[in-house]
């Protein structure tokens, strides 16, 4: 991959002049969530016209951005060979980062790589949650006030022993509904982590809550929402939460991934002070 810092400025300027506002919207979305399938791009960016016309226009747009070098198209196709070009996965290229004048959500370098399928699936699940929240926002079913994926949502704090600790949610969301803001740290669980790892992560959130840093910064502590693929997995994670300190169990909520948008904007997902 060509690093953004090594790309000639004149090349960046030339490319910017060729991009439409819709093109820039694609790059900004990829900057936010790292990976998007072509269908997700269409749902986010190309929202007018018949379904067939929307997909076709999204295909042409992404082919053009790939040829311009602004995005990278992965060799893997989501949904198998029968999905065709509608199943392509895209990421922001080094040139695309330079066009946005950034090399990552926090200004650090970001690599574009052919990651393992399970990691791609996880990132696409986080992206899908964002796409659904945007769609609900358009339909008036909750105002999407913020959605930060990794690493823009990472938090740093001093642990109980004086050590520097990080929490790394898959996403942070803030949704306004009926004059109430619902904020959440989101963990998208694909059943790849052990229950001891889930417990360790949960304890880290508890330590962060007890530090008071988030409350001082934002006034509230977000709900920690575990989104899972099955009821069986949900029960296992609820069992882990049930073994945590009693005063901290209310910090957490567990639900199905398919119900994520409703859970994040519902009254039961209010922030914890």
In short:
This protein is an alpha+beta fold and 273 residues long. Helices cover 43% and strands 21% of the residues.
What would your notes on this structure say?
The chain is an alpha+beta fold and 273 residues long. It is built from 10 helices and 10 strands. It has helices at 9-18, 21-33, 38-45, 51-68, 94-99, 117-138, 195-211, 213-218, 231-241, 260-265; strands at 35-37, 71-77, 88-92, 143-149, 155-158, 164-167, 171-177, 180-188, 223-228, 252-256.
Descriptors:
alpha+beta; five-stranded mixed beta sheet; three-stranded antiparallel beta sheet; 10 helices; 43% helix; globular; disordered C terminus
* Strand-residue proportion: 15-25%
**DSSP summary, beta strand count:** 10
Task: Sketch the topology as an H/E string, one letter per element.
Answer: HHEHHEEHHEEEEEHHEHEH
Question: What radius of gyration results from the CA coordinates?
Answer: 20 Å
Lateral arrangement of strands in the main beta sheet: 4-7-8-9-10
Coarse morphology: globular
Secondary-structure class = alpha+beta
Helical percentage? 40-55%
Distance between the termini: 44 Å
Largest sheet: 5 strands, mixed
Number of helices: 10
- The parts where pLDDT drops under 50 for at least 5 residues are 104-109, 269-273
Q: Could you tell me the mean pLDDT?
A: 87
């Amino acid at each position: 991959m060509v690093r953004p810092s090594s790309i000639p400025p004149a090349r960046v300027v030339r490319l910017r002049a060729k991009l439409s506002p819709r093109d820039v919207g694609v790059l900004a979305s990829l900057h936010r969530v790292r990976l998007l399938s072509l269908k997700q791009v269409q749902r986010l960016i190309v929202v007018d016209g018949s379904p067939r016309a929307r997909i076709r226009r999204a295909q042409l747009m992404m082919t053009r951005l790939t040829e311009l070098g602004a995005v990278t198209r992965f060799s893997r196709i989501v949904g198998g060979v029968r999905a065709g070009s509608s199943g392509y996965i895209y990421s922001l290229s080094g040139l695309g980062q330079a066009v946005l004048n950034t090399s990552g959500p926090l200004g650090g370098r970001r690599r574009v790589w052919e990651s393992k399928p399970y990691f791609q699936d996880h990132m696409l699940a986080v992206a899908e949650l964002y796409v659904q929240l945007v769609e609900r926002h358009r339909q008036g079913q909750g105002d999407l006030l913020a959605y930060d994926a990794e690493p823009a949502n990472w938090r740093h704090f001093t642990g109980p022993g004086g050590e520097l600790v990080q929490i790394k949610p898959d996403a942070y969301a803030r949704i306004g509904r009926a004059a109430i803001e619902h904020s959440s740290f989101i963990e998208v669980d694909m059943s790849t982590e052990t229950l001891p790892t889930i417990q360790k992560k949960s304890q880290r959130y508890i330590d962060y809550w007890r530090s008071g840093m988030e409350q001082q910064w934002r006034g509230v502590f977000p709900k920690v929402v575990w989104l899972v693929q099955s009821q069986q997995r949900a029960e296992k994670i609820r069992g882990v939460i049930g073994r945590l300190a009693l005063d901290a169990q209310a910090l957490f909520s567990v639900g199905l991934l398919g119900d994520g948008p409703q859970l994040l904007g519902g009254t039961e997902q209010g922030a914890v002070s």
